[in-house]
Design goal:
Strand 7 and strand 8 form a beta hairpin. With 217 residues, the chain is α+β, with helices and mostly antiparallel strands. It has six helices and ten strands; from the N terminus they run H-H-H-E-E-H-E-E-H-E-E-E-E-E-H-E. The chain folds into two domains: 66 residues, no CATH class; 138 residues, Oxidoreductase, molybdopterin-binding domain (Sulfite Oxidase, Chain A, domain 2, Alpha-Beta Complex).
C-alpha cells in the first residue's frame, strides 16, 4: 500500500485517492489535514479532467453522427429515383429524363387521404400528380409502362393521367417510404374519392417500388 504522505506516487496514486475519498475522516485522524486535502484535490482534478474528456468525446460523436445524417439525407435527395424513357422530341429522337426527389417535388406535389387494399386504416399520400408529370414532358398520347425495382411492370394508359387522378407518391403519412414499405415511389389512386378508382384494373396499375417509366405508342 502506498504512502499517503506521497499522494502523487504513480504506483499508488489511484488507491490513495479512492482511500482518502471514501475514508476522509480516517485520513484526517491519521495524517495531517493538509495531506488529505492535497490527495482529495488531486482526485477532484482527475475527475474534472475525465469528465471533460468524456464530454468532448460525446460532443465529437454527436457532431459526427449529425454530419453523417445530413450527408445521407443530401445524398438521398440527389439520388435518381425515377427515370422516364422514350420521350419524343421535335427531331423525332427519343430522350430520357431522370428525376431526383427534389426535381419531382418541383413539378408540383399534392396530398390526399385514402384507404387502400394493402394498408390498414386511412393513409395520407404525398406525391406528384401523374397528370403534371405527363404535362411537364409534353406527352399527348400513348401508354406508360411503369416498372418496379424487381422488374414487375404494368401498363397505364395516358388517359389515366387526369386531374384529381393518380399520383406518384413519395411520402406516406409524411415519411419517405423504403423499398420494404413499397417505396421509394408508389402510384396511388384516390380510391375513396370515386368508385371508378376501386376496380381490379386500377388496383393492378397501382404499382409500388416504382423506379422507371417508359413511354410507348
Amino acid at each position: 500500500m502506498g504512502d499517503f504522505r506521497n499522494p502523487l506516487t504513480k504506483s499508488t496514486h489511484f488507491w490513495q485517492i479512492r482511500h482518502v475519498t471514501y475514508t476522509k475522516v480516517e485520513c484526517e485522524q491519521t495524517y495531517a489535514p493538509v495531506t488529505c486535502a492535497n490527495v482529495h484535490g488531486t482526485f477532484s482534478a482527475i475527475i474534472n479532467q475525465a469528465w471533460g474528456r468524456l464530454m468532448r468525446n460525446l460532443l465529437q460523436g454527436v457532431m459526427a453522427l449529425t454530419l453523417l445524417f445530413f450527408t445521407a439525407i443530401s445524398a438521398m435527395a440527389n439520388e435518381t429515383i425515377l427515370t422516364v424513357s422514350g420521350i419524343p422530341t421535335d427531331s423525332g429522337a427519343l430522350r430520357v429524363q431522370e428525376y431526383d426527389l427534389a426535381q419531382l417535388r418541383d413539378i408540383g406535389e399534392v396530398s390526399f387521404t385514402t384507404t387502400t387494399p394493402w394498408t390498414e386504416g386511412e393513409q395520407t399520400f404525398t406525391g406528384v400528380p401523374l397528370s403534371k408529370l405527363v404535362a411537364s414532358l409534353n406527352l399527348q398520347s400513348g401508354v406508360l409502362m411503369a416498372t418496379a425495382v424487381n422488374d414487375y411492370a404494368v401498363e397505364i394508359p395516358m388517359s389515366d393521367a387526369l386531374q384529381d387522378g393518380p399520383i406518384i407518391a413519395f411520402l406516406r403519412n409524411d415519411k419517405q417510404m423504403s423499398v420494404r414499405e413499397k417505396g421509394p415511389l408508389w402510384i396511388v389512386y384516390p380510391y375513396d374519392s370515386d368508385a371508378k378508382f376501386r376496380t381490379e384494373i386500377v388496383y393492378s396499375q397501382s404499382i409500388w417500388q416504382l423506379d422507371r417509366i417508359m413511354v410507348s405508342d
